[in-house]
């Protein structure tokens, strides 16, 4: 096998470093996607200032379906 060069230690180091890089990339991707998801939910969710009811924003005035207060 002339096409494979390097010692077993080099191959092991390469595999370990590739695993560490894959773990870091997976963690970074998950963190970024979670942050984007939280930002989207924060824009579409509202908490009423009067009664504390949490609801999804369905109109521009953010009217609470529980107490009918406007949460601008």
Task: Describe this structure in a few short sentences.
This protein is mostly helical.
Defining traits:
72 residues, rod-shaped
List the helices and strands and how they pair.
Blueprint lengths: L7 H37 E3 L6 E3 L16
Antiparallel strand pairs: 1-2
- β-strand percent reads 5-15%
List unreliable stretches of 5+ residues. Answer: none
Shape: rod-shaped
Number of strands: 2
Q: Span between N and C termini?
A: 72 Å
Largest sheet: 2 strands, antiparallel
Summed over residues and divided by their number, the pLDDT gives a mean of 85
* Helix/strand order, N-terminal first: HEE
Structural class of the helices, strands and pairings? mainly alpha
Radius of gyration: 25 Å
Number of helical regions: 1
Descriptive notes:
The chain has 72 residues and is mainly alpha-helical. It has a domain at 8-44. Helices cover 51% and strands 8% of the residues. A hairpin with a 6-residue loop joins strand 1 (45-47) and strand 2 (54-56). The longest helix is centred in the middle third of the chain and has 37 residues, at 8-44. The termini are far apart.
């Amino acid at each position: 096998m002339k096409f494979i060069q390097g010692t077993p230690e080099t191959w092991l180091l390469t595999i370990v470093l590739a695993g560490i890089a894959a773990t870091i990339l997976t963690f970074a991707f998950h963190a970024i996607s979670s942050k984007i998801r939280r930002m989207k939910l924060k824009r579409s969710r509202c908490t009423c200032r009067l009664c504390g009811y949490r609801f999804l924003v369905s109109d521009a005035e953010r009217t609470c379906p529980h107490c009918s207060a406007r949460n601008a």
